[in-house]
Design a protein that fits this description.
mainly beta, Beta-galactosidase, Chain A, domain 5, nine-stranded antiparallel sheet, 4% helix, globular, Aldose_1-epimerase, Ald1_epimerase_CS, Aldose_1/G6P_1-epimerase, aldose 1-epimerase activity
């Protein structure tokens, strides 16, 4: 196992973890984000995640791509929430219908995180201190995110956080998978299997309504493996609202993986397990104008599996609990395991 470093532009550094199978995972301290995940298949080495070649592109094209998201992943309706009878108003974004998305503008994804290298465990440890009132959130929040690449071809994500005041915390990673290795090819022919019987119904502005709907009889039923393309073949109102998937799915506890994503040819498979209660799946419904010059980010060419408490947890009790208090640290783990031929 080895860890190498190189400059990534604008004061950022790119770190690459490599295991004994020559599988490599690259991450940068800009946003504690995943940039590349190279798999040495019999058909050649493939990068199975979307990423840019320098920090400039993340700052100008898409700051969320591959990044650690926080303090709160997803949308906070009207940027307003209440903790212990105190109402807070956090920074909203006009392009999000004046809701707060992913912690608000210039949040975790734009920061240079402190990095510690753990050679023994083939691990990167990113830390960031979010000060009290940053984007309006209460409390000084200390966040640590660890990425480990194992010799079992697992990418392990371990979140840890503490606060000195009651606050909200619901992180995720915003990596986009494309198992073809071609960032210009859509994910429509990928196959998805998901241990989920219910999903959160959304409004037109992608906030949740509070309804949990059974997947049965809907295009969102992935309890058995189904091609992602089938969600585009219907006029189901939830699909039409966002032009694909941008929904929280509530996860079942299983003995095996809770999600399995398989490439169109079946040569690569990614299995996801998590201790979180939900996963937000977004099928890169950017619209036809979302294409950068390098063609590394194009409409429908990636899919996210964002493990987290479901957005809306601060509004609806049965969606989860995202209040973090000073007397209890936050811990969460997610594993993505790749298999390939």
């Amino acid at each position: 196992m080895t860890i190498t470093t190189q400059t990534f532009g604008n004061g950022a550094t790119l770190y690459t973890l490599t295991n004994k199978h020559n599988v490599s995972l690259s991450a940068t301290d800009l946003g504690a984000r995943i940039v590349n995940w190279y798999i040495p298949t019999t058909q050649g080495t493939k990068n199975i995640v979307l990423g840019f070649d320098s920090s400039d592109d993340y700052q100008t094209i898409d700051s969320y791509l591959g990044a650690t998201i926080g303090r709160v992943a997803g949308r906070i309706t009207n940027g307003t929430f209440t903790i212990d009878d105190t109402e807070y108003h956090v920074t909203t974004q006009s392009d999000q219908n004046n809701n707060t998305l992913h912690g608000g503008p210039d949040s975790f994804e734009t920061k240079i995180w402190h990095t510690t290298i753990n050679d023994e465990h083939n691990q990167l440890i990113f830390t960031y201190n979010s000060s009290d009132s940053e984007n309006g959130f209460p409390g000084n929040l200390e966040v640590q995110v660890s990425y480990t690449l194992t010799d079992d071809n697992e990418w392990l994500i371990d979140y840890h956080a503490t606060t000195d005041q009651a606050t909200l915390f619901n992180p995720t990673n915003h990596v986009y998978f494309n198992l073809t290795g071609n960032p210009e090819e859509t994910i429509h022919e990928h196959t998805l299997q998901l241990a989920s019987e219910t999903f959160a119904v959304i409004n037109k502005d992608v906030t949740v309504t509070g309804e949990k709907r059974n997947v049965g009889g809907t295009p969102f039923d992935f309890r058995q493996p189904r091609k992602i393309a089938q969600i585009y073949d219907t006029d189901y109102e939830q699909n039409v609202l966002v032009g694909g998937l941008d929904h929280p799915f509530f996860l079942e506890k299983t003995d095996g993986p809770q999600a399995t994503l398989t490439s169109p040819t079946g040569d690569i498979k990614v299995e996801m397990t998590t201790d979180e209660e939900a996963v937000v799946i977004f099928s890169a419904n950017f619209g036809p104008d979302k294409t950068d010059e390098s063609k590394k980010l194009t409409n429908f060419t990636g899919i996210t599996l964002e493990t987290q408490a479901a957005p809306g947890a601060i509004e609806f009790d049965d969606f989860g609990d995202i209040i973090l208090r000073p007397n209890k640290a936050f811990h969460s783990k997610t594993c993505f395991k790749v298999q390939y031929t």
